[in-house]
Design brief:
It is a single chain. The protein is 44% helix and 16% strand. By secondary structure, it is an alpha+beta fold. Helix 4 packs parallel to helix 28, helix 7 runs antiparallel to helix 8 and helix 12 crosses helix 13. It is elongated and about 130 Å long. The two termini are 73 Å apart. It is found in: Membrane. InterPro entries: ATPase_P-typ_cyto_dom_N, ATPase_P-typ_P_site, ATPase_P-typ_TM_dom_sf, ATPase_P-typ_transduc_dom_A_sf, HAD-like_sf, HAD_sf, P-type_ATPase_IV, P-type_ATPase_N.
Length: 1202
């Protein structure tokens, strides 16, 4: 819409002056105590506005406006990237062996050692470069955005953001982002008001109102800035988004600056045609960049364990090198006897140290270094790069999963980091936000109470859950008595967003026939007038949309409109409403003059407007929380108080948010006195200005007449109960951390089936008479001591209840409020609290602050050592997401702050089911098997080198050609394991979801336990022994070919290497559960590539191919014994694993084995058999509606047995 210019009529009616609307919030700034610090430490910034050529401005060495988020620059990429690579112990080890390969100690050529290392390091660096280039392109896009900058002669030119300097005057237009931190000078409104969306900063979609200084509010034309000069002194750059202290000196007078005048970079101008602002902070000095910290480095449990395996392998290499060097030293010392060298074939005469019997100890030391280089093949050089490649490909599959694509918002899943893929399959505890995560954060007007009568026939999900709690089977079981619950929710809902109200008594104008029609009229008229909502009318369709500061506000105005009280226009001092006239029965337009707006805040908990109607009556219309509104009612205004209180409690039990509506009529004399006092208070520049305003409003917001109450629902997201049920069946514990009241959180817990009727609730709070009496005294130390003792006692009593319950089927739910949680998280209490929480089936923390959410997450993560996942959608969830092992952000309606701080982003909570149970399980299984296989294949290969060394009295002679050694990990065994990591599936996605029990393999870590790892290692040692001894024994005592020649090192090495390639690749084929065409290609292709390479490499001149010169063509291929030995050795090496796997699968199947048998035997569609398998995961303490039904069945069976 911005940019239509004058060529087209504007589609939306706007441009309204709101000086009256924001009487209390956007008024004259006052000098406060903080302003006295200007010029001192921390408040030393000086800005010359609109004076780019002044010498003082030139001398200020402030940051430019170029922002860089990349990890590297062109000059630092090479050194920093190399440093990152060689921080890994394995890579550093290969670097050292690569350097040593240039010395005479090397058992192979330097090129054969360096080339694979360069390949692996190069591949990783390319990946780093690609990822950083993506960040670079984002930086380029942001820095090259354009904004209009004052040129100095009263005109504005479009310039790139990166060229801005401190002191520049910029013009930002509607729906554009602010390019830097600006001081608001003026706007398209006469009183310098503007609307700002801070979604990118704090995650809130609600619009904020900012206002420039009154002295600059008249500068609304470009030409006004010709000759404009101002001098600003303010605080130094800092990360506090909600504070700003400064002064503006203009024409010799000083004016205080506050956060009300500060426009932050990356926030957006909304509902305002344009603003003029002075640049105060640029680039990395801006508050949003000051707040941007590097996300915590997270590593998966498998990756951490992999480091331990690497260290174990290092120890094995050192041990074998030490053993070999000792034996070699002893053998060398005894080598010379009677003037004859026993190992003459090693040519000791040409060596000065290595084989000198007189210096055997030195020879042993040199041999140790040589052996450490030779046995380096125990360490898989391509392990890290292969895993990184696999994880990136796995992330692509997650991103492309159509089942996690939210079509309504066009949002797919996004794996923002690939480091934690396998961690998704090991989650033990989920810590979830409520609003916007479990619920939609989209308010719907569903019920109301007017004149003591309840209207609205809709049934909330909480009410349905409450019905189930009382024994009504509802939707789960059909029953004649379930009509009111099971049918009503499926009535066709309104297509109007924010309105889900159904009641024929007051819809379609029928309210005029109600007994208290006059009260109903005042009720909905109040909803249509008492707000700060801005209407936007599309002149082509005449459809009205509303811009509100909160979803609740929008829901109220929409509800009033749908019920016949349509708010359609606002001017600088008026509100226009179309409504049904009680007398004539016709639709009329009414105009209300807005005199004052008394804004809502967390202290007041109410909002009021004072208006004058068409009859000249002065009305104060007020809405607010029940605990502040009921006490402000007049004696004559309490007619419906008792009924309204009961209905408000009923609405709260149904999980609805409630507000009380009331009004009073003001006398002209009373209003005049109020207006004088409020004007005086708002004009005050003293430090107690706010308290003066509060005192004035307290006197007018009293003696109210009650009209009724509203009830809006923040609905559960689609699929949340089903998702929680599946996650619970998978054995995952679910905690809810919310800022809502305890009653609301409990009701949502029942709706989600996190709580159920037979659960015993352990409630920890400080709502005791003792604490209340202490709070009245105001002694903070005594209150804190007593509160902590009370919380500790309640925790100990809760643990006692758990202990006394023993092993019976009683399930416990722990519910704790924010005040109690503060003491429960103290160092000397938190571990006791954790013990209690872990013993409960469900945990709900109410009234939790963002810091408490993060602290609880840290406690759970560090306390039980299991994988934690935090999920949230708002800026208040960022700490929790970063603290957890895995942070999942919901890309919902509260902005992108949580998503930008998360490891994985999804659009709906229900997608967590597929993310964990399918992708999590697959990734965990794939990575676990992949790592185990890597060490298996390297032990199989490396241990044959050790055995050959032992066979040759540790003479440091490798069994294989140099390039055979180097290319083993790169070409002949790497692609199959990558294919396994990307494509293998033990069971299909359908069965992963059908049998959530399968997920326990990851939670219990059965696929990457030390038992399994050592089992794979043993398999590698066994395979190496079989390959070496069978090949050596088979070739040792008979002629190798028809010419009668016996095999030498080249033939033995070639035969052993062929057997190794076959064994490790066929071992992969045995380990794979799900074959694809790609896996066939890479497995059989790796074997074929070995034969092709051996043939091609053997054709090179002997000076290049050395011992491999034509060895395959002339020696191995023509010999029948070579092919027979290969077949025999391969079968012998693989047979034990095959037998073990067959016995385990048949008699001791793991979870996935059971499901595979289920499918193989055709019982996957047998409900009785499937239920029997599923029940293994439904313990008495499991939450979810399936567990609730099982608990109910157990209760019925117990009652029948009695």
């Amino acid at each position: 819409m911005a940019g239509n210019g004058t060529k087209r009529p504007r589609r939306r009616r706007r441009r309204i002056q709101l000086s009256k609307l924001y009487t209390l919030t956007c008024t004259q700034a006052c000098f406060k105590q903080d302003h006295s610090q200007i010029g001192g430490p921390g408040y030393s910034r000086v800005v010359f506005c609109n004076e780019p050529d002044s010498p003082e401005a030139d001398s200020s060495s402030y940051s430019d406006n170029y922002v860089r988020t990349t990890k590297y620059t062109f000059t630092t990429f090479l050194p920093k990237s190399l440093f990152e690579q060689f921080r890994r112990v394995a890579n550093f080890y290969f670097l050292v062996t690569g350097i040593l390969s240039f010395t005479p100690l090397a058992p192979y050529t330097a090129s054969s050692a360096i080339v694979p290392l360069l390949f692996v390091i190069g591949a990783t660096m390319v990946k780093e470069a690609v990822e950083d280039w993506r960040r670079k392109t984002q930086d380029i896009e942001v820095n090259n955005r354009r904004v209009k900058v004052h040129r100095g002669d009263g005109s504005f030119d479009s310039k790139e953001w990166k060229t801005l300097s401190v002191g520049d005057i910029v013009k930002v237009e509607k729906n554009e982002f602010f390019p830097a931190d600006l001081v608001l000078v003026s706007s398209s409104y006469e009183d310098a008001i503007c609307y700002v969306e801070t979604m990118n900063l704090d995650g809130e979609t609600n619009l904020k109102v900012k206002q420039g200084l009154e002295v600059t509010s008249s500068l609304r034309e470009d030409i006004n800035f010709k000759g404009f000069e101002a001098f600003v002194k303010c605080e130094d750059p800092n990360a506090n988004l909600y504070s700003f202290v400064g002064t503006m000196e203009l024409k010799g007078a000083k004016y205080p600056l506050s956060p009300q005048q500060l426009l932050l970079r990356d926030s957006k101008l909304r509902n305002t045609d344009f603003i003029f602002g002075a640049v105060i902070f640029t680039g990395h000095d801006t508050k949003v960049i000051q707040n941007s910290t590097d996300p915590p480095s997270k590593r998966s449990m498998i990756e951490k364990k992999m480091d331990k395996i690497i260290y174990l392998m290092f120890f094995m290499v050192v041990l074998m090198s030490f053993i070999g060097s000792v034996i070699f030293g002893v053998t060398t010392r005894d080598d010379f006897k009677d003037g004859v060298m026993r190992r003459w074939y090693l040519k000791p005469d040409s060596s000065s140290i290595f084989f000198d019997p007189k210096r055997a100890h030195v020879a042993a030391i040199y041999h140790f270094l040589t052996a450490a280089m030779l046995y380096s093949y125990f360490i898989p050089i391509s392990l890290y790069v292969s895993i990184e490649i696999v994880k990136v490909l796995q992330s692509i599959f997650i991103n492309q999963d159509i089942h996690m694509y939210y079509e309504e918002a066009d949002k797919p899943a996004r794996a923002r980091t690939s480091n934690l893929n396998e961690e998704l399959g090991q989650v033990d505890t989920i810590l979830s936000d409520k609003t916007g995560t479990l619920t939609c954060n989209s308010m719907e007007f569903i019920k109301c109470s007017v004149a003591g009568t309840s209207y609205g026939r809709g049934v909330t999900e909480v009410e349905m859950a409450m019905g189930r709690r009382k024994g009504s089977p509802l939707v789960i079981q059909s029953n004649e008595n379930d009509v009111e619950y099971s049918i009503e929710p499926f009535v066709e809902e309104s297509t109007v967003r924010g309105f889900n109200f159904r009641d024929e008594r007051i819809m379609n104008g029928n309210w005029v026939t109600e007994t208290h029609a006059d009260v109903i009229q005042k009720f909905f008229r109040l909803l249509a007038v008492c707000h700060t909502v801005i209407p936007e009318v599309d002149e082509e369709t005449e459809k009205i949309s509303y811009e509100a500061e909160s979803p609740d506000e929008a829901a109220f105005v929409i509800a009033a409109s749908e019920l016949g009280f349509e708010f359609y226009n606002r001017t600088q001092t008026t509100v226009s409403v179309r409504e049904l006239d009680l007398v004539t029965g016709k639709r009329v337009e009414r105009l209300f003059k807005v005199l004052n707006v008394l804004e809502f805040n967390s202290t007041r908990k109410r909002m009021s407007v004072i208006v004058e109607d068409e009859d000249g009556k002065l009305l104060l219309l007020c809405k607010g929380a029940d605990n502040v509104m009921f006490e402000r009612l007049s004696k004559n205004g309490r007619e419906f108080e008792e009924e309204t209180r009961d209905l408000v409690n009923e609405y709260a039990d149904a999980g609805l948010r409630t507000l009380i509506l009331a009004y009073r009529e003001l006398h002209e004399k009373e209003y005049k006195a109020f207006n004088e006092r409020i004007s005086e208070a708002k004009s005050s520049v003293s430090a107690d200005r706010e308290s003066m305003i509060e005192e004035v409003t307290e006197k007018v917001e009293k003696d109210l007449i009650l009209l009724g109450a509203t009830a809006v629902e923040d609905k559960l997201q689609n699929g949340v109960p089903d998702c929680i049920d599946k996650l619970a069946q998978a054995g995952i514990k679910i905690w809810v951390l919310t800022g809502d009241k305890m009653e609301t959180a409990i009701n949502i817990g029942f709706a989600c089936s996190l709580l159920r009727q037979d659960m015993k609730q352990i409630i920890i709070n400080l709502e005791t008479p003792e604490i209340h009496s202490l709070e009245k005294t105001g002694e903070k130390d005594a209150i804190a001591k007593a509160s902590k003792e009370s919380v500790l006692l309640q925790i100990i009593n809760g643990k006692a209840q758990l202990k006394y319950s023993g092993g019976n089927s009683n399930a416990f739910a722990l519910i704790i409020d924010g005040k109690s949680l503060a003491y429960a998280l103290d160092d000397d209490v938190k571990h006791i609290f954790l013990d209690l929480a872990v013993g409960c089936a469900s945990v709900i923390c109410c009234r939790s602050s963002p810091k408490q959410k993060a602290l609880v997450t840290r406690l759970v993560k560090s306390g039980n050592g299991k994988t934690t996942l935090a999920i949230g959608d708002g800026a208040n969830d960022v700490g929790m997401l970063q603290e957890a092992d895995i942070g999942v952000g919901i890309s919902g309606v509260e902005g992108m702050q949580a998503v930008m701080s998360s490891d994985i982003a999804i659009a709906q909570f229900r997608y967590l089911e597929r993310l964990l149970l399918v992708h999590g399980h697959w990734c965990y299984r794939r990575i676990s098997t992949m790592v185990c296989y890597f060490f298996y294949k390297n032990i199989t290969f490396g241990f044959t080198l050790f055995l050959y060394e032992a066979y040759t009295t540790f003479s440091a002679t490798p069994a294989y050609n140099d390039w055979f050694l180097s290319l083993y990990n790169v070409f002949f065994s790497s692609l199959p394991v990558i294919a396994l990591g990307v494509f293998d599936q033990d069971v299909s996605a359908r069965f992963c979801l059908k049998f959530p029990l399968l997920y326990q393999e990851g939670v219990q870590n059965v696929l990457f336990s030390w038992r399994r790892i050592l089992g794979w290692m043993f398999n590698g040692f066994y395979s190496a022994v079989i390959i070496f001894f069978l090949c050596k024994t088979s070739l040792q005592t008979q002629a190798f070919n028809h010419q009668g020649k016996t095999p030498g090192r080249e033939i033995l090495g070639g035969t052993m290497y062929t057997c190794i390639v076959w064994v490790v690749n066929l071992q992969m084929a045995l380990a794979i559960s799900y074959f694809t065409l790609i896996q066939h290609i890479v497995i059989w292709g790796s074997i074929i590539v070995w034969y092709l390479f051996m043939t091609a490499y053997g054709e090179f001149p002997a000076i290049i191919s050395t011992g491999a010169y034509r060895v395959f063509v002339e020696a191995l291929a023509p010999s029948l014994s070579y092919w027979v030995i290969t077949l025999f050795v391969v079968v012998s090496a693989l047979l034990p694993y095959f037998v073990y796997s067959a016995v385990q699968m048949r008699f001791f199947p793991m979870y996935h084995g059971m499901i595979q048998w289920l499918r193989y035997e055709g019982q996957c569609n047998d409900p009785e058999y499937c239920d029997m398998v599923r029940q293994r995961s439904i313990r008495p303490t499991t939450v979810g509606f399936t567990a609730r039904l099982e608990a109910k069945k157990r209760s019925v069976r117990r009652s029948e047995s009695i």
